[in-house]
Write a structure and sequence with these properties.
alpha/beta, 6 strands, 10% strand, binds the ligand CSCCC(=O)C(=O)COP(=O)(O)O
Length: 261
């Protein structure tokens, strides 16, 4: 594998979470099962509260947009005659389970997931897993004057929970900001242009690290520099992609040092 060197124009790092700062197994084996197991209880407990009603309204809009997809689960309105609350809650649960079975990255699903995780983090039942090379590298980047942002399909609220209640402690001061799908989806190049505008820099000043080559391609089309992250358990990268992209296996200190000396 060719050693990675970042272009000198880079002043800003944009980091993906799942497969980049954090293991895919943490998301798939801890975070997602927690939602599947607790969504019904969460909805029943918080149904009358405004944030829960807003989440359900967004899920219902998404369900309407998904109506042509195979297996989709409609969410009836509580005002519809002959439909009791339990049936509506069950429809929301079924819709969430269906979306999760396809690993959908809809904003509606991601907002609700963040709200469900909140109490698990706050009570210490769950801690955000971060690879051990991540914190020292970010500290080094920041000392070198590099800005560090997160861009994940997980909602900004969920990102802040993961890093705020992490195995390495509260890491939120390490980041200059957070982006989620409300700025655009990660597979669309316009999202990266929106991010550059929001940060107030040119896209060529940004280096995006991600495990997903579709995201790397979209970012590159927007003029953003990219490197594909190979962590244990990440989705396999083809031989062609290995030749096409800069590859990194960790945020190791030697790699960080080589960036700015
Ligand atoms: C930050 S919340 C957990 C991650 C998540 O829900 C997700 O979909 C991960 O997507 P990413 O864009 O970080 O690969
Ligand atoms: Mg990822």
């Amino acid at each position: 594998m060719a050693p990675f060197t970042a272009p000198t124009a880079v002043t800003t790092l944009l980091l993906d979470i799942e497969g980049t700062t954090s293991p895919i197994t943490f998301v798939k084996d801890v975070l997602f099962p927690y939602v599947k197991d607790n969504v019904k209880g969460y909805l029943s407990k918080h149904w009358k509260e405004q944030p829960c009603q807003e989440d359900v309204a967004e899920l219902r809009k998404q369900a309407d947009a998904d109506s042509l997809l195979s297996g989709f689960v409609p969410i009836p309105c509580t005002s519809e005659c002959n439909i009791d609350l339990d049936a509506v809650i069950q429809a929301v649960v079924d819709n969430v389970h269906w979306q999760m079975s396809h690993d959908r990255k809809t904003t509606a699903l991601k907002q609700l997931q963040g709200h469900i995780w909140k109490s698990a983090y706050a009570t210490g039942q769950m801690k955000g897993k971060v690879y051990e090379d991540v914190v020292p590298a970010i500290q080094k980047w920041r000392e070198a004057g590099i800005k560090v942002y997160i861009y994940s399909s997980g909602s900004i609220e969920a990102q802040k929970l993961l890093f705020g209640y992490s195995t390495e402690g509260d890491l939120l001061t390490l980041f200059d900001g957070h982006f989620d799908t409300t700025i655009g989806h990660k597979g669309e190049s316009e999202s990266y242009i929106n991010i550059a505008k929001s940060i107030g820099c040119s896209s060529e000043n940004i280096l995006f690290l991600t495990d997903v080559t579709k995201e790397a391609k979209a970012a590159e089309e927007a003029g953003v520099h990219v490197a594909v992250v190979l962590r244990p358990g990440n989705i396999a990268v083809t031989d062609d992609e290995k030749l096409r992209y800069s590859l990194i296996t960790s945020f190791s200190m030697s790699w960080v040092a080589s960036m700015y000396h």
